[in-house]
């Protein structure tokens, strides 16, 4: 009976596939926090690059397994989603760097914020992808709304350029400060600390800047998920491919952050490339309809996406190679 349950279909795939994926994710999180980062310390760029390479390799190996197990089209859809989500994560890195700077989070505690932030991301993405999958399965026209949204988002990214978000004026920060006690002083690795209330003189729990940074990291991911979830659904509606490609791309974000935050300006022209990718992904749904295609070819989608992002990376590195800043 138990073995039969493993082969039961759930969200389009056997239960054993989902359990296998979840087991890998849990093992990576335990290894990360329990082995690599038991002590709070600064992560150097070299270590960050090594860990990032490991996570990217694992994500690509999982994609190869998807290709072998499910076929070429699901494999290419996974790789396309993985590449798009990984590139979107670069923009997320920039916002996280602003959050850490605003709250003056010491480098040795930044990994702690990112780790718990990733746990929240895994849950939030599962909810959003579950809702998206339900909507698409019940109302196929929702895909056209997603596609139009991606096109508008891409055009908006090209139009606004590198306008920085205003962290200090964020309404979420003001709401949290009204809701709970917040202290402006850091207290080591603690998200909450017990101290005397300056008004009542009684002991009370206060949220530290570390917790406020965690809240903003989660909010930032919700905002970015509004782009990334429609993007992956415009590539494929398979919940397994959608969720696994998203999570594998996000898992390496912690490691990638410490390397990219030190050289984020070198990728100045990657954001316009990403905007073009979003416009392309949104447009291909309408193009497929105009050409009377059942689906836009996965190989073309992957090839065009890789070409645009690669061009953005190399153009950025070329333009910033002499000064280290956009010319």
Report on this model:
The protein has 327 residues and is mainly α. It has one domain (2-319). It is built from twelve helices and four strands, in the order H-E-E-H-H-H-H-H-H-E-E-H-H-H-H-H. It has helices at residues 2-6, 15-36, 45-70, 72-102, 107-138, 142-160, 171-179, 209-235, 239-251, 253-260, 270-290, 298-319; strands spanning 9-10, 13-14, 192-196, 203-207. The protein has a two-stranded antiparallel sheet with strand order 1-2. A hairpin with a 2-residue loop joins strand 1 (9-10) and strand 2 (13-14). Helix 2 (15-36) packs parallel to helix 9 (239-251), helix 4 runs antiparallel to helix 11 and helix 5 packs parallel to helix 8 (209-235). The N and C termini lie far apart (65 Å). The model has no long low-confidence stretch (mean pLDDT 83). This is TerC family protein. It is a multi-pass membrane protein. Belongs to the TerC family. InterPro entries: Integral_membrane_TerC (IPR005496), Integral_membrane_TerC_rswitch (IPR022369). It holds the Pfam family TerC.
Work out the number of β strands. 4
Label the overall shape: globular
The major beta sheet can be summarized as: 2 strands, antiparallel
Which structural class do you get from the secondary structure elements?
Answer: mainly alpha
SSE topology sketch:
Blueprint: H1 2-6, E1 9-10, E2 13-14, H2 15-36, H3 45-70, H4 72-102, H5 107-138, H6 142-160, H7 171-179, E3 192-196, E4 203-207, H8 209-235, H9 239-251, H10 253-260, H11 270-290, H12 298-319
């Amino acid at each position: 009976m138990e073995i039969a349950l493993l082969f039961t279909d759930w969200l389009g795939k056997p239960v054993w596939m989902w359990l296998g994926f979840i087991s890998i994710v849990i093992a990576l999180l335990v290894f990360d926090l329990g082995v690599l980062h038991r002590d709070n310390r600064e992560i150097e760029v070299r270590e960050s690059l090594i860990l990032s390479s490991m996570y990217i390799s694992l994500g690509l190996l999982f994609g190869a397994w998807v290709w072998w197990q499910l076929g070429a089209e699901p494999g290419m859809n996974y790789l396309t989603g993985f590449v798009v989500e990984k590139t979107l994560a670069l923009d997320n890195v920039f916002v996280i760097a602003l959050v850490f700077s605003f709250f003056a989070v010491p480098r040795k505690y930044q990994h702690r914020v990112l780790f718990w932030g990733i746990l929240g991301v895994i849950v939030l993405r599962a909810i959003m992808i579950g809702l998206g999958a339900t909507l698409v399965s019940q109302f196929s026209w929702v895909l056209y709304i997603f596609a139009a949204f991606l096109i508008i988002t891409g055009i908006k990214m090209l139009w606004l350029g590198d306008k920085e978000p205003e962290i200090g004026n964020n309404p979420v920060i003001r709401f949290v400060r009204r809701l709970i006690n917040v202290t402006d002083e850091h207290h080591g690795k603690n998200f909450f600390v017990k101290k005397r209330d300056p008004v009542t003189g009684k002991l009370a729990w206060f949220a530290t800047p570390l917790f406020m940074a965690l809240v903003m990291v989660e909010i930032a991911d919700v905002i970015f998920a509004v782009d990334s979830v429609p993007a992956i659904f415009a590539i494929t509606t398979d919940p397994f491919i959608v969720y696994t490609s998203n999570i594998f791309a996000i898992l390496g974000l912690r490691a990638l952050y410490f390397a990219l935050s030190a050289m984020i300006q070198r990728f100045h022209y990657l954001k316009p490339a990403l905007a073009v990718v979003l416009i392309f992904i949104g447009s291909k749904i309408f193009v497929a309809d105009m050409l009377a295609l059942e689906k836009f070819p996965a190989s073309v989608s992957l090839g065009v996406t890789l070409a645009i992002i690669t061009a953005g990376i190399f153009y950025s590195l070329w333009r910033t190679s002499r000064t280290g800043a956009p010319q």
